[in-house]
Amino acid sequence: MPWNILTRTILLATGLVGVLACLVTGRLVAQDAGIDPSRLPGIVVDDSQAVTEGTWTKSRHTRPFVGDSYIYSQGGAGQTVKFPVEVNEAGTYQVLVSYSPGTNRTTKAAIIVPTEDGDKTVVLDQQPRPAGPYSFQPLGEFPLSSGKFEITVSGAGSEKGVVIADSVLLLSPEGFAQFKADFEKNTPKLAANLKVDPNKPANKPAKPVAKPEDKKPEPPQETPPAFVRKAPAKPVAKLTADELDALMEKHVGGIADVSLVADEDYIRRVTLDIIGRQPTLSECDAFAADDAMDKRARLVERLLASPEFGTNWGNYYSDVISYRTPEPELTFLNYTPFKKWLADEFRANRGWDEISYQVITAVGKVGDNPAATYVGFHQGDRSRLASETTRVFLSTQIQCAECHDHKFVEMPQETFHHVAAFFVRVQAKLPWNDSSQIVVSSKPAGEHKMDGRKEEMKPIAFSEREVDLGRSDVSRRVELADWIVGPDNPWFAKAFVNRVWARTMGRGFCEPVDEIGELGDRVLPEVHTALAEHFVASQFDVKDLFRVVATSRAYQRQLRDPQDDTERKPFAVVAAGRLRGDEVFDSLAAGIALPNVTPPPTPATDAIRFPPPPKSTRDLVNEAFGFDPSSDQSNVNRTMQQAMLLMNNKQIQAQIDASPSSGTMLAKIVAAESDDTAAVTKLYQQVLARKPTPKELDIAREHMKSVGDRKTGYEDLLWSMVNSAEFLSRR
After folding, report:
1. pTM for the full model?
2. What span, in angstroms and rounded, lies between the C-alpha atoms of 576 and 199?
């Protein structure tokens, strides 16, 4: 079946590709129909024409696919699909098969092609995305005879994974080259405007295309106005650390006469909480040598002035957003620019209200305006932006009301969709494989409707802020942001205070930390309200909030789990918690001088056109130890992945080397201190930021004797410290 290149070119040029599941700016568009076989070049055989043996099931779950659906099997002997092919002219043909990729797919699908030289079997990994156009994977060029034969897809060699059978395509080598070139040239730009109607006849003429001179120029992109902070409607008071302690004494008790933690415990804890790493040996020594009465307050000021404060809390809020943001197709989301922007904002002590306003209202290219990351990485999806905006900035979850009235609280379905209407005119254009090129812009028109209803939903925020229909995208988001960050909003200040309190005091006033409404576990509302009012009175000064908490007696108590029923009262004791992934890496860097090594990028190949970016040491540590900061600490557990990373990572193992030639921190301590008591003490101070107990000293010295090799003994000791729960958590 020869391919008419001219006809194919005209079809593409006029937009008549119909129901193709096209790749739109780097991600697949879900459509009601698959790729139309009649519009593909060459010899096409769909699964609807094939003969199956065994158990095969139809599916439309994962796009793209050819025709109405594809079929799948769990694999194993007897699971085959035979595609009947008729070739009119003998010759060399490129054979392609179509499949939808996925992580649950087989890596050993067998494709059997009868050639002039006998049957040829190609083993196909169906997990990665096909390397050819659309959903097609080229298998190679084969000499084929004229006549009828069958190409077989078999799951016989697949003990694990799902086998996909969708369609077979045969092309001449020249036709295949043209197919690829035409796809790469035309598909992305044509698909951006493609709207599929599955009921539209395939031969229906295309609508006339306006000439360039007839098209109206797009209006200039609207930009949000500069942030203007408003004064609260009623007076609010700031708190001192002493006033916070008085409130805690009144509502919790045991604060006025509590024994404060020792200096070495305090410096490790406050350093972790504020700048996200354990203190270095030199920092601990300097703090221990300071005899001033206000040394702890001055330490807090030094930490708040450190650039690492912005880095730590920029990482925290980036994680709050990224852990609930799905990855789009063919684009790896890079949060590094967003983290840097957040870090700069926190370092400059920009008010949390201003930071939030910028994030919600941002427009432009992510690479030029990292504040647009939040809207851009959510791909301008109005539903996700509605639920995530209230969750992240107000700690109020409304996603359960998207499809029906909320089952547990008084929240009708309309509440969700009124919020979604604020985002109905925002859009995000995604490139292929470069998230910095995502552009957040505005659609000129459009209103939001609930499924099954005709009326247009007005943008309304919890009955507190209402916007008329017809307003532009930016003006809607500005109105929403203005209400969210306003000093009189009952949730905004409390949401941020709750997260800081949860981190510094072991749990939040409300748990989980992203639910301060009726469904949250709420305690000490008086203290929560007082701190929130302090935050408003300070003009949302993040550093001042940390200053008040970290210098209070309530904060300076010992970290421990509750021992009896009297200590199970909220905040009767302060519980420890796990370190986030970035904090684990930064503590390893401070403790054992762990370097951050990034391997060179993987070059693109025909099989892997968009290789993932290389993972640095920090990335690997964060991947193993990272967790959603909104999660309940009780759900954050040690994993096998973490143990294997600490055991096998080359950079970590290189730092746990006592050989004199290694030049590591451990090697220097072992070489400098011939006395084991002195060496063990210094190692504890370096890695755990404290001196060892007498029992720990005895155990370490005994281990040295039992091993019989000083180098091995100290490597064992350091490895056990790095793997300890103490190192990986706040103490």
Report:
1. 0.71
2. 60
- CA pseudo-torsion sign 417, 420, 425, 427: negative
Residue-wise pLDDT for 301-335, tens only, equals 999 999 999 999 999 999 999 999 998 877 889 99
Under 8 Å between Cβ of 549 and 244 = yes
A 10 A CB-CB count for 654 gives 14
Last residue of a domain, one of 436, 464, 484: 484
Type of residue found at 440:
V
Q: Which residue has the tokens 């302090």?
A: 534
348: Cα within 13 Å, side-chain hemisphere? 11
Q: Considering the chain, what percentage of its residues have pLDDT values greater than 90?
A: 66
Rounded Cα distance between 52 and 72, Å, is 10
Range scoring the smallest mean pLDDT among 95-104, 268-277, 562-571: 562-571
CB-neighbour burial class of residue 112 (10 A; exposed 0-12, middle 13-18, buried 19+): middle
Is residue 392 predicted with pLDDT exceeding 90?
yes
What single-letter amino acid sits at 67?
G
User: Which residues lie below 8 Å from residue 361, measured CB to CB, with a gap of 6+?
Assistant: 224, 474, 477, 478, 481
Q: Read off the tokens for 253.
A: 């008790």
Question: Could you tell me the CATH number of the domain that includes residue 25?
Answer: 2.60.120.260
CB atoms within 10 A of CB 332: 13
Q: Is the distance from CB of 600 to CB of 671 less than 8 angstroms?
A: no
Type and span of the H or E element at 547: helix 542-550
Q: Which of 579, 557, 556 is nearest to 724 (CA)?
A: 579
Residues 406, 412, 415, 417, CA torsion sign: positive
Cα torsion angle, 7, 13, 18, 24, sign: positive
Which ranges in 48-144 belong to alpha helices (H)?
Answer: none
| Cβ-based neighbours of 111, under 8 Å, separated by 6 or more | 95, 97, 121, 122, 123, 124, 139, 151, 152, 153, 154
Is 731:559 a contact under the CB 8 Å cutoff? yes
Q: State whether 33 and 161 are in the same domain.
A: yes
Q: State the average pLDDT over residues 448-469.
A: 91
Question: Which phi and psi angles does 245 have, rounded to 5°?
Answer: -65, -40
Helices (H), 327-381: 336-347, 352-361, 373-377
Distance CA 219, CA 702 (A): 77
In terms of phi and psi (left: phi > 0; alpha: psi -120 to 50; beta: otherwise), the region of 330 is left
Calpha distance 247→241 (Å, rounded):
10
Same structural domain, 14 and 49: yes
CB-based contact 300:551 (threshold 8 Å): yes
Would you say 111 and 139 are in contact if contact means Cβ atoms under 8 Å apart? yes
Does residue 301 lie within any of the structural domains? Answer: no
Measured between alpha carbons, how far is 193 from 215 in angstroms, rounded to an integer? 15
Other C-beta atoms closer than 10 Å to the C-beta of 441 total 20
Residue 701 lies in a domain: yes
> Distance between CA atoms of 342 and 114, rounded to whole angstroms?
59
Number of structural domains found in the chain: 4
User: Considering only CA atoms, which of 293, 271, 298 is closest in space to residue 282?
Assistant: 271
Same domain membership, residue 338 and residue 480? yes
